[in-house]
């Protein structure tokens, strides 16, 4: 029972499932029916499902048949009406066809006309569209043509502007045309072409200013010179209502415009032609000589193209290279002033251009760049000047170089460059200038001293007298009162040397001009240089003259007189320097002139040379002495050579009248002492081993002649018997031997009141031994002791005793 209920329940569920599947089949699209059917075949009741499906189909067929039976009569009626309409439709068709044929025939011409109208309208529309397109293209083509013309005429900056308008304004409106694409493709090439051409112009400009920088610098320095001359004139003599044209501003703005359409302004670069002008005409501004438009154009072109930094770097790099070339001096620059001038002109020209670029462009060069270049230029210029100026031996060239350096510095200072180091270097060159002056004046002094006749200047008229006094500060009331002709005490080299010292001072003063030094500094420089001239150059020249081998006593005497007067003139040189520098000698730190010392040293050297010269002359006379040391004859007069010597001394000392008394006295005393010493050496000469008392007597006569000369007072100013003291050693020695007063000598030796105080035991022993040797020589017949021959042993014993006592004295006082 339960099994039957369960089977019935399952059957109901299966029937319900089959019903659901059938509804899905009826309502589902045919393409999606597969899963539904698959579920049927997956189950076990597909047979029953097929039965239900057949049943459902038969039901639908019965419904369709009912539907058709219900509408059949209406369908038949409709068919009947359609058959009636077909005939009428055929008639209408025939009528329409006939009407259409007639219409086609009648409207054939109209159709042709309409086709023609259509073509005309189409052409009109095309023409209008073409005109519109051409109106858009014509400005592009015109701009492109203008661009080509500007490129052809090398107006590159306007061409770049045109290219910019063409690219950003016109081409976008017609960008779909092929020719526009060609233009767009050419635009980068055109820009590069403009860059290359403008860079080529810049290179030409740089090469041009490199070649002509000396002309630019020459003009700038000429301007500075004219301005300085004008300033000097204004300072010296102010002029009211001067009609001189105002000087052009250093930064003249040129007429060249960046966008100028003038072919000349576009093409010209570098130096403009300027005719030579007369000195009294205004010199054109240095920048007026240069057309800077290539730089401006290139700068603007690169700025527009966005490559300004590239341009700036290139410009600065090239100018640095040019600066190094400009700062390289030629190897022979030191030979002429033109070499220095060209070197300075190039440097000035270079920095004038850079300064103008600095002030007329925005950032192409800056102050740091200019300062860096100037520091390099300053160091290299100073090094070159130090090297080349050291080769200059001509003071005039050094002075001209100094003036050129000052002008060079003043010119650059106008443009704002610091030039203090140049003026510091000029102080170094000043020392070199002083050295060259000293060398030059050394030759001048040498020529003056060599050409001088060393004789007092004769004066035959008042005119000549005033001329000499005008050249040299000399005042002598007694000489002024003397009638003409008369003589100055000094020779010609005194006024010549004095005037050359003044010329030297003037030469030193010339170098100090325009160095911006104070009066004190100028005064100190002049005084130091003058001291070098006096203490080194003039002193050396005087010493060389004094030490010459062939110089005579007359010349030496005149040199002493001359240096005495030059020494007195030193105060006038001090006043001369004070007058030209306006610095009082009482000012603190003022250097004093050493002229007094110089002339004193020269005078002392001349005095020493006089003493030496006199002694040499005395030696020459003594070489003529020919004593017969073995003679037994007693002479009655002095030797001839000594008489001549005394005569020479008298004449010589007569020339000493103009010398200071002390000099003449010293010379006379020195000569007498030297003569006495030489005679003593002659007497004690080792070669003379024997001598007789007769020879000693002759020698005594010569000494008496010398004493007579000393007593005669050859030079005034000696006290009584002072000059004779030069011969006191000889006199006491001769008296000792001629008087044979050995007992007195031996008894009083060593006492202040000894009669033979100046006789040295060694000298006495030497002379005694010579006499002793002669006495022992028995071969001599004319022996002075022959009358005592019978007592010869006693006499020889006496000599031996004296000699022994002398040796005792020597040993006691040794």
UniProtKB/TrEMBL annotation:
Keyword set includes Kinase: no
Function statement: Component of the exocyst complex involved in the docking of exocytic vesicles with fusion sites on the plasma membrane.
Chain ranges of the Exocyst complex subunit EXOC6/Sec15 C-terminal domain: 421-770
Annotated Pfam families: EXOC6_Sec15_N, Sec15_C
Naturally occurring in which organism (per UniProt): Delphinapterus leucas (Beluga whale)
Gene transcribed to yield this protein: EXOC6B
GO terms classed as biological process: Golgi to plasma membrane transport; intracellular protein transport; vesicle tethering involved in exocytosis
Coiled coil: 82-109
Membrane spanning stretches: none
Family to which this protein belongs: Belongs to the SEC15 family.
Residues covered by region (Disordered): 253-280
Entry-linked PANTHER family: EXOCYST COMPLEX COMPONENT 6B, SEC15
InterPro entries cross-referenced by the UniProt entry: EXOC6/Sec15, EXOC6/Sec15_C, EXOC6/Sec15_C_dom1, EXOC6_Sec15_N, EXOC6PINT-1/Sec15/Tip20_C_dom2
Protein name as catalogued: Exocyst complex component
